[in-house]
Amino acid sequence: MKKLTLSLGLLCLISFSSHAQFMVAKIVGKNADQFGTGYGLFTYLDFPLASGNQSVRLELMDFAIFPAKGENFFTSTGGGRGYASIKLGYKYVFSETQAGFYVLPSAGFGRAVYTHPGKDATYGDGVAVALESGYIIAVGQRSN
Q1: Whose CB has fewer CB within 10 Å in the chain, the N or C terminal residue?
Q2: CA distance to 30, 37, 119, per residue, from 19 (Å)
Q3: What is the dihedral of CA 42, 45, 50, 52, to 10 degrees?
Q4: What separation in angstroms does the CA of 31 have from each of 26, 40, 64, 66, 72?
Q5: What DSSP letter does each residue of 28-57 carry, written as one string?
Q6: pLDDT, tens digit, for every residue of 81-122?
Q7: How far apart are CA 93 and CA 113, in angstroms?
Q8: How does strand 100-115 pair with strand 80-93?
Q9: Is the pLDDT of residue 9 over 80?
């Protein structure tokens, strides 16, 4: 019974802290013109620190797929790029409340794949680094 209670409590804690979002992305830089708009998903856990305007974020899954330019995303046969990563970050909000401008640097492990038409896919592993910034708007009684 103790294991069940502990497991349910841990599951509730994780579910209250978890978030997921769909994304639309674009490759920038070298060879960016060869690939179209990418689509993906990321899920993360956000753990607030004692001060209220700081938190630690664990991105459990972050992935995106970029089909070759001119290809349909769902029926692509002409190659493309994709990635998956796991990152840990530190979020800081520049105000005393939970609303305002924020910055979130994060780093972790990433795997990229490049598919060639008619050939085997090429994989690469490495360090995944991200810098996110934005503005948080307080909505509702709990500012969620």
Answers
A1: N
A2: 32, 23, 37
A3: 40
A4: 12, 20, 17, 12, 19
A5: -STTGGGB--EEEEEEEEEEE-TTSSEEEE
A6: 888 899 999 988 888 777 889 899 999 999 988 887 777 778
A7: 34
A8: antiparallel
A9: no
Selection from 80, 77, 41 nearest residue 59 by Cα: 41
Comparing CA positions, the residue from 68, 65, 86 lying closest to residue 77 is 68
- What the block records as the tokens of 117 is 């038409």
Share of the chain above pLDDT 90, in %: 12
pLDDT in tens, 47-70: 888 777 788 888 888 888 888 877
Neighbour-count burial of 72, counting CB atoms closer than 10 A to its CB (0-12 exposed, 13-18 middle, 19+ buried): exposed
* pTM, 2 dp: 0.68
Ramachandran region of residue 11, left (φ > 0), alpha (ψ -120 to 50) or beta?
alpha
